[in-house]
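Hi again,

Forgot to attach this to my earlier email, sorry! This is the prediction with guanosine-5',3'-tetraphosphate bound. I've pasted everything inline since the attachment limit keeps bouncing my files.
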Amino acid sequence: MSSQTVEEQISPEQIRHEVARRRNMAIISHPDAGKSTLTEKLLLYGGAIQQAGSVRARRAQRGVVSDSMKIEQERGISITSAVMTFEYDEKRINITDCPGHADFGEDTYRTLAAVDNAIMLIDAAKGLEPQTKKLFEICRMRKLPTFTFVNKLDRPAMNPFEICDQIEAQFELPCYPVVWPIGDGDRFKGVYERATRSVHLFERGERGKKAEEVHVIPFNDDSVAELLGDELHAQLLEDVEILDTMGNEYDYDLIMAGELTPMFFGSAMSNFGVELFLKMFLEMGRCPPAKKSNTGLVDPDAKLFTGQVFKLQANMDPKHRDRLAFVRVFSGVFEKGMKVSNARIPGKSIALTRPQSLFAADRYTVETAFAGDVIGLNNPGVFAIGDTLCGDSSKKLSYPGIPSFSPELFAYIKNPNPSAYKNFRKGLNQLLDEGAVQMLRAKGDQGNEDPIMAAVGQLQFEVVQRRLKDEYNVDSKLEPMGYNVARWVTGPGDPWEALEGCGRLFNVFYAKDQWGRPVCLFKNEWSLNAVIQDHPNLEVAPWSFAP
Ligand code: G4P
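Structure tokens for the complex follow:
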């Protein structure tokens, strides 16, 4: 048997090949737009699941695929991000599931830091919804190529031009419809594919069936007018003319920069338009790109393994009380059992013995992984969000941290039962480690006052309280604070000195984050603006990077 490691056996060509065939995506949407249904249909094409309905059915039964905790099952929402992988047309696709609930934030944002493409899923009857906007802003900040899938065309829908206008006006994101819907609701006839000038006809099929046979005919075929009916045919002619003469032009560079969104229309439930979308996504979607580090750009097909922890999770399997760190691979070959360094803890080498791939709760061991993949590592407390892992400890390589997002809700979390103090602290510390919420303390607190939980949405508080109860068997009480805006003091020099130099700020609560850095809490935006106006030299930011 060869004594070479897998890493040594794999040639540079193989690495390049593996990277080039990888595409990953996160689907962002408002609850109920059809994300589970679309995910399930995409997995069906890859043969990753055998029967449609299983993502949603299993979710309902045990919360297996997208959702893994009790609170999610009860509320029918997806809180934790699982990663699903499948192969299609010789490509390997990773879907990182993003929580879509309006009240849930941090996790979704971090997930978006680990993917190379975003899919914005929109309910055709509702158009843009508020939560989609918040998520989209993160995509924009990260310059993620964003694809739009307008779903539920089999139901009465908004005018497609109106949906484009909404995206262009509210997100300032120009659209490029790759396909265009023909009718909607009972009169939904299919889509027109612009590149091939052909019509894909919709046939109401059995819901959940695998791929429907789709009939594709050239738009100029004599039968088209009859098949669509005069009215829809005339409408389509007019729409196509408008798109071709007044619409945005296809521009691949703009798509890659996240400044033009390719648009698709279909019906996930009836499995119409999904395969066409998948094919086009594989063609147009971004493959794992080079990644900026402190030592310059790192090529995804470089031999050296590097990755970054973007999510931590405790107790995914309550029977084992395990803790997992999710790592996005950015370069090289990951090999089971390999030793890596963690840029945050110099000099320590960590053996990655039980790497896992997660199909939510179904886990299998990963032997090798390449740039674009996500692996789950057992975390005996050595990994934190944003940590850079590297296969060569002499390299001192690290990637920029993953920002924590500006919390908007603040509450003291109290332990009502003094005898449970130890468990309360343990549970809280582990959940805070995961980054389920951020924890602040009052400026002068030496660790004996109640900690302040800071969240993006109310649901984050509920999740922490519920998990304290379920996983650590402790009760907790929340005492909301009347502050709604947080700003980290930044700028050169000591931030505490900069803050003190301003004198006592009116109506501002002085807190510190888990690294002891100053965070100011304001009652509202107005109060923040008043302070900024009075102290133009005070530099503040709405979020922070882990140091
Ligand atoms: P989510 O993960 O984004 O929250 O949405 P999910 O897939 O659970 O879908 C929400 C509802 O929308 C489901 O109906 C689902 O069947 C329906 N749906 C999804 N895609 C389509 C589509 O293309 N057309 C139509 N007409 N409906 C669609 P439900 O009533 O909540 O559940 P069920 O009774 O269908 O299981």
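The pocket of guanosine-5',3'-tetraphosphate is lined by residues 29, 31-37, 56, 100, 151-152, 154-155, 267-270 (CB under 6 Å). The first strand starts at residue 22 and ends at 29.

That should be everything now.

G.
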